[in-house]
Write a structure and sequence with these properties.
This protein is mainly beta. It has four helices and 14 strands. The strands form three sheets. Strands 1, 2, 3, 4, 5 and 6 form a six-stranded antiparallel sheet that branches. A five-stranded mixed β-barrel has the order 10-11-12-14-13. The chain has a three-stranded antiparallel sheet with strand order 8-7-9, with helices on one face.
């Protein structure tokens, strides 16, 4: 990496990243519907005669797609060129923060301005050494402030690997699942070889993954039902990269339609990854992935596949 002073980066703070940007489409019901279907959000506020857009769609209305936006400033490109030239050629999104000021409804015209809010001093992470860049976007609906979106990335130089690229990677343990008070009951069920689905105590709607409250009626009361274990592959991806010591690519990750009407993500096993198909029937089993961790996976039922040929 070439030397790059922090002062050379600080001068970009406060510079515009986009000026007088305009959403390519007004807020509209089809996009709201697609978003809610993808997220599994059935809140009645986002449907019906006078719907609002889910607040977390705030950034979606500002996206420029492959062709980009008019009004993009050169400052962002200049900053990236400076970081690239110093050897910080990799980038990863780290987090975003949103603040909501006004509900968005179909027909609202979206405009926005964006600014490079901050560039951090050089930081060293597990990925490598680099600088965090935070961009703030101020979003308006029909000229009124609607919200703020902060997006943070890390521009970094990858850490040097400790072993040659062609050397075998040592086997390590799978990442442990995050267990908290909202999902502890699910993992307790897994330990008993039970796949438990939450059921709302108010409207009796089934939901998965586990949530503290019902997204259909808002009730905080719930109990569980045990899944039969039967399902079909709704969609899937075959993972090849990046390689990770605890996994043996290629392997299939499926979105499984459970017989009870909810979906969950898990591995599809029992057939080569290139033989997984949409509509394929699968059956739950529990598989030890190391000496401490057992996970629910789905085994393809031999000879029972759908007719679709593509994956997600």
């Amino acid at each position: 990496m070439s030397s790059l002073s922090y002062e050379a980066l600080k001068v970009f703070e406060g510079r515009a990243a986009a000026t007088s940007g305009r959403g390519k489409d007004p807020v509209n019901e089809p996009m709201i519907r697609h978003w809610c279907e993808a997220m599994g959000d059935t809140n009645s506020a986002y449907a019906g005669a006078d719907p609002t857009a889910p607040p977390t769609m705030l950034q979606a209305w500002t996206m420029g797609g492959l062709s980009g936006h008019q009004g993009r400033s050169a400052a962002y490109d200049e900053l990236f060129a400076l970081l690239d030239g110093a050897g910080y050629t990799s980038v990863v999104a780290t987090d975003c923060e949103q603040e909501y000021l006004r509900a968005l409804r179909p027909g609202d015209e979206i405009t926005f301005d964006a600014v490079i809010e901050s560039v951090s001093e050089r930081k060293t992470t597990k990925l490598g050494t680099g600088h965090f860049v935070t961009t703030r976007m101020d979003i308006r609906a029909d000229g009124e402030p609607a919200g703020t979106h902060r997006f943070r990335i890390l521009k970094y130089a990858p850490a040097q690997r400790q072993q040659a690229a062609n050397a075998p990677m040592p086997k390590s343990k799978r990442p442990r699942p995050v267990i908290n008070r909202d999902n502890a009951g699910f993992w307790e069920g897994v330990a008993r070889h039970e796949l438990l689905i939450q059921r709302c105590g108010g409207c009796r709607t089934l939901r998965f993954p586990w949530l503290p409250g019902c997204n259909a009626c808002g009730s905080l009361a719930w109990d569980t039902v045990e899944a039969s274990g039967e399902g079909t592959v709704y969609s899937y991806v075959v993972m090849h990269h990046p390689p990770f010591p605890a996994f043996d690519p290629p392997y299939a990750v499926g979105l499984i339609d459970l017989a009870e009407g909810v979906r969950m993500v898990s591995n599809v096993v029992g057939v080569p990854s290139d033989k997984v198909r949409i509509g394929q029937q699968v059956r739950l089993e529990f598989q030890w992935v190391d000496e401490e961790l057992e996970l629910p996976v789905f085994r393809a039922v031999e000879g029972m596949t759908g007719t679709a040929e593509g994956g997600a």
